[in-house]
Amino acid sequence: MERRKFIKSCCVVGVGLPILGASLQSCGGVHYAAVESDAEKLSVLKSEFITEGKSERSFVLISLKNSNFPICLYKTEEDTYVASLLKCTHRGCELNVGGGIYSCPCHGSEFSNEGKVLEGPADQDLKTFKTTTDNENIYIYIS
């Protein structure tokens, strides 16, 4: 490779990588939804699934005051949602969300977005909560 071509290639990579990294980081952010709660249920606005750019999120996370683990509210179909506690049933590690599955960073268990075991060592499905909807809200029954 000629010296001039090599330097030009290095410059393109040097300028392009930071731009690419910034754009990927903005796409991959996890969104924690605003929640209203009472003793028996959580209420999440359906609009929490719409980004500022007007695209749809496939899931949102919900932080609970009395739990070390969030709930992932996953949209599986139009107006159908599954709420799962992100606590691995194998050893209690917090699960990662991505690629349409939940994965355990500790021992490699994988779960479907509906909380079913896909890959061990976990042998029990995730704790899931009943959900219902109306025109504007999704309700998660936690009691």
Features:
143 residues, alpha+beta, Rieske Iron-sulfur Protein, seven-stranded antiparallel sheet, 17% helix, globular
Describe the 3D structure.
With 143 residues, the protein is an alpha+beta fold. The chain folds into two domains: 1-29; 36-141, Rieske [2Fe-2S] iron-sulphur domain (Rieske Iron-sulfur Protein). 17% of the residues lie in helices and 33% in strands. The chain has one helix spanning 3-27, and strands spanning 36-37, 41-45, 59-62, 71-77, 80-85, 96-98, 101-103, 110-112, 117-119, 128-133, 137-141. The strands form two sheets. Strands 1-2-11-10-5-4-3 form a seven-stranded antiparallel sheet, with no helix packed on it. A four-stranded antiparallel sheet has the order 6-7-8-9, with no helix packed on it. It is globular and about 70 Å long. Mean pLDDT is 83; it is low at 12-27.
Strand content: 25-35%
Radius of gyration: 20 Å
Percent helix: 10-25%
Low-confidence stretches: 12-27
Query: What's the CATH topology name of the largest domain?
Result: Rieske Iron-sulfur Protein
Strand order within the widest beta sheet: 1-2-11-10-5-4-3
- Number of DSSP E strands: 11
Provide a count of the helices: 1
Looking at the overall shape, the CATH architecture of the largest domain is: 3-layer Sandwich
Categorize the overall geometry. Answer: globular
Mean pLDDT value: 83
Largest sheet: 7 strands, antiparallel
